[in-house]
């Protein structure tokens, strides 16, 4: 009798993609999307989803050709070489993970603070910090039990979101999402792109490539089906939220908008249910992203693009990188507001995803890809980035300036670090034949 394969099949990879996308993002950014896109919020989610879907094509092709746990890091290295440009991009990717962690922590604190009486802002920051410290400790001591619970948490939050969607559809006030409530094209695209972080998680599929049976069949199906499923889910949630709650109330409660939107049809019990789901979801997202980002920093450091402190291991874990990640997350989550965090994160990932699309365009002969689709994905990502930064520059100038500073710093630090230490990329994987 043959030994059972330990390789992952379609449904396991699909679950990783859906779990990565439906993490803390939808709980954090729904109110922000409504503030920018008003009644056209469902369209904003569709626009962001289209950019994600086109990018998933490049990820599917690159993952099958260069199967590696390094994922995005490996794709950029293969297409653009191993110089300062790629090193700076990989640092930007790591910093974008920090911003994702900050967004999840911010959402955890915002929803958790609704359970406490008194100073909401005080409790929000207490819970932001407590979440980061708690899950950092879990990652240091051993996250096996939490890791095993992740699939149950993913199932629970999807079930609660479907309950929200199905129950709320019956009471939608269509006039609140009618065309006369929509915003102009520029503001609409900006609304879609500022919530782009809610789709980011599909790239986690790339890190499974070495562990998947029949890569050429499973990975493309998992990428496309997971993104399409989440687009449908997000549009439905946006219709229910905007269609059930006046825009002013949704914006006033933007830090915990999804819970507030459940009140008209589920009452106070619905608010509590969604808030609990948000805590579970953002908590699991913090845990998983801390785990992944610490290891991404470890891979980048091993390749020679970050200081060696990031690749030191204690108890077989990259603890130093984990602690540095946690400290940076604490600073960003507590010092920046939700709008700034989302602008920083979405802008960072739009750059990374735009360049992954362009990487697939450059490597099209090796990945057997359509150059037109890859180039269209890159063009949409960069155009959307420009519109996002232009639109929010008047209302959130500080966030845009910080992002530009972050971008410049990523490449400056990489250049100075390489000049000072002489470290270079250590290896690239061979192409899959």
Short description:
With 433 residues, the protein is mainly α.
Give descriptors for this structure.
433 residues, 17 helices, Amino acid/polyamine transporter I, globular, mainly alpha
Task: Give a description of the structure.
With 433 residues, the protein is mostly helical. It has one domain: Amino acid/polyamine transporter I. It has 17 helices and no strands. It has helices at 10-21, 25-37, 41-65, 72-80, 84-113, 120-141, 144-169, 185-194, 215-244, 247-252, 257-261, 263-303, 319-335, 338-362, 364-367, 371-392, 397-421. Mean pLDDT is 85; it is low at 429-433.
Shape: globular
Mean pLDDT: 85
Total helical elements = 17
Number of strands: 0
Helix/strand order: HHHHHHHHHHHHHHHHH
Estimate what percentage of residues fall within beta strands: under 5%
How would you summarize the topology of this molecule?
Elements: H1 10-21, H2 25-37, H3 41-65, H4 72-80, H5 84-113, H6 120-141, H7 144-169, H8 185-194, H9 215-244, H10 247-252, H11 257-261, H12 263-303, H13 319-335, H14 338-362, H15 364-367, H16 371-392, H17 397-421
Helix pairs in contact: 1-9, 2-3, 2-8, 3-8, 3-9, 3-14, 3-16, 4-5, 4-14, 5-6, 5-12, 5-13, 5-14, 5-17, 6-12, 6-13, 7-9, 7-12, 8-16, 12-13, 14-16, 14-17
């Amino acid at each position: 009798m043959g030994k059972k394969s330990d390789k992952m099949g379609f449904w396991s990879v699909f679950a990783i993609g859906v779990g990565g996308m439906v993490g803390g993002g939808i709980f954090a950014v729904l109110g922000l999307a409504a503030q920018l896109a008003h009644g056209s919020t469902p369209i904003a989610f569709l626009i962001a989803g289209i950019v994600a879907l086109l990018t998933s094509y490049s990820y599917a092709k690159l993952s099958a050709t260069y199967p590696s746990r390094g994922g995005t890091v490996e794709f950029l290295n293969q297409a653009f070489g191993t110089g300062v440009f790629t090193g700076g991009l990989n640092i930007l990717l790591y910093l974008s993970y920090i911003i994702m962690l900050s967004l999840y922590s911010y959402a955890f604190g915002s929803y958790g603070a609704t359970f406490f009486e008194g100073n909401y802002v005080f409790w929000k920051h207490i819970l932001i910090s407590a979440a980061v410290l708690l899950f950092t400790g879990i990652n240091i001591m051993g996250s096996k039990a939490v890791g095993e619970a992740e699939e149950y948490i993913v199932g629970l939050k999807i079930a609660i979101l479907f309950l929200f969607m199905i129950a709320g559809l019956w009471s939608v006030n269509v006039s609140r999402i009618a065309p006369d409530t929509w915003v102009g094209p520029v503001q609409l695209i900006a609304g879609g792109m500022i919530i782009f972080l809610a789709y980011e998680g599909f790239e986690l599929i790339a890190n499974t490539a070495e562990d998947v049976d029949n890569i050429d069949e499973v990975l493309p199906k998992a990428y496309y089906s997971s993104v399409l499923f989440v687009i449908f889910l997000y549009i439905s949630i946006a219709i229910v939220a905007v269609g059930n709650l006046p825009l002013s109330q949704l914006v006033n409660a933007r830090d915990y908008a999804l819970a507030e939107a459940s009140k008209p049809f589920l009452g106070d019990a619905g608010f509590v249910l969604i808030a609990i789901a948000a805590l579970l979801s953002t908590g699991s997202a913090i845990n998983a992203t801390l785990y992944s980002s610490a290891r991404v920093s470890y891979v980048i450091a091993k390749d020679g693009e970050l200081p060696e402190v990031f690749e030191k291991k204690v108890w077989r874990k990259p603890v130093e990188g984990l602690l540095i990640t946690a400290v940076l997350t604490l600073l960003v989550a507590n010092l920046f507001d939700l709008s700034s965090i989302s602008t920083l994160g979405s802008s960072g990932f739009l750059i990374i995803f735009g360049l992954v699309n362009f990487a697939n365009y450059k490597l099209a002969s090796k990945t057997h890809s359509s150059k037109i689709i890859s180039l269209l994905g890159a063009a949409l990502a960069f155009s959307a980035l420009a519109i996002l930064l232009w639109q929010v520059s008047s209302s959130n100038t500080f966030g845009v300036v910080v992002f530009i500073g972050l971008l410049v710093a990523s490449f400056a630090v990489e250049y100075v670090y390489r000049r000072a230490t002489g470290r270079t990329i250590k290896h690239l994987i061979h192409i899959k034949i």
